[in-house]
Amino acid sequence: MTDTSNAHQLGFSRRSLLVMTASALPLAALPSFAQSDDNDIKQVKSSLFGDRKIQDGRVEVKLPPIAENGNSVALDISVDSPMTESDHVKQIVVLSPLNPEALVSRYTLTPANGKAAISARIRLAGSQTIEVIAEMSDGTLWRGKKPTLVTLAACVIG
Amino acid sequence: MIRLAACLLILLTSCSPTADVTLPDDAIATKDLQSGSAFLTEETRALQEDDFENPGLLWVERGADLFVDTSASSKSCADCHDEQLKGVAASYPQLDELSAELVNLEKRINLCRARHQDLPELTYESDDLLALTAYVANQSHGAPITVAVTEETRASYEAGEAYFYTPRGQFNLACNQCHNENWGKKLRGDTISQGHGNGFPAYRYEWQSFGSLHRRLHDCDTGVRAEPFTLGSQTYIDLEYYLAVRANGLPVESPAIRR
Amino acid sequence: MSTIRLSVPETAKKNEIIEIKAMIQHPMETGYRRGMRGEVIERDIITLFECRYDGEIFFEGEFHPGIAANPFLSFYLKATKTAELVFRWTDQTGQSWSETATLTVT
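ok -> structure tokens follow
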């Protein structure tokens, strides 16, 4: 984008391209859902799960590799569980390390679900790795993660 | 007799919509026409095609309810229009014969309300007008845009064309500089589209909601730091008309998903 | 008025696991955005989604500002009996919207 050497080839005048770049930058600092420096992911995790051990596995998280807009990104979660009375997923927690609020959403499941899989659409304040933690009926905690790249739009109005 | 001949001539020209229009040098060849959805990710295209998950369908569904609604008027839209609206949106904007004005779908809906239902105009960009427009547009989903230029509408076409080619705003950019000359190239994270309106009214991620083509045009004008026009203004209807003729042959995709 | 869309199969075999989809029109205004004059746009979000099967809640969602506008959810249900499904969304002020669907188990 800042490579002005081919500005003429692109058909824009060099000046208008520079003006566009210059004015696109401050706009980029004003996305509808700004990134936050003081994301509270640690607090949220400790208030929900204390210092209980979280193991990696059993949770599969799907996000598109590239999200063309952070305002709505498809998230699919599935947890490896038989979903019986004695062995099922009790809750699923979606966490973001970059959004102004780490806790994106929380789902309560029961054996009546039959299958521990959900889909939702979430907001992402920028490229990041989403963390999903599942709490099982036996009290164990399992985690899955997925990174995604959020691209920046050219013509953002505000 | 002369009048009859003139009518026949108009009918004939309507059959080959752009036959009497000289296309500019940088116009996109018909074989290269690509809808805005061609410049989206596979996931977004799939969402657009999903007959449940596409969020624009929330407005289509609301429009379907409003279409048969008789709570405010003795006549519902459906009392006059049944199956007949299939394919209709693909030929808009078009001339309203009674007023001899060029109208888009939104304006036609409001004219219908005034003339046949004794109902007040719906505000441009209101959820109800968007919903009704989306419902009617959706009746033409997949139909190729077929918008004719006639002697009566030629001035509007030319006004729209002039708008398209006039550099404006602090960036001093004209529509054609992005959408004719540089489509397919990158502008930051975006791929520049050909600037067609065939997906509108559409759900845009940036709006996090559903909106009209005029709202999109308003955003383009704001994007180049130009003074935007009022939604529903004749200036934007003329531009919408020019864009429709320019997109002749592309399928109606409303409710589309756009960035 | 908030439009609601539901996708629930009309019939299912006993013990079949069916997918349910639900979507509601809502801005899910985060409270982090500013308007044209720099004023903060106040938060306006749905905070709770509940789904009942024959009167009993079997799935719940707790929404925060990180949930996209016009919230969409899909989840599963093990079809055990012919019964009504009730979907309810409640916003931060307690206002709620609901819709029902009947599932016939054969």
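Chain B has a mean pLDDT of 91.
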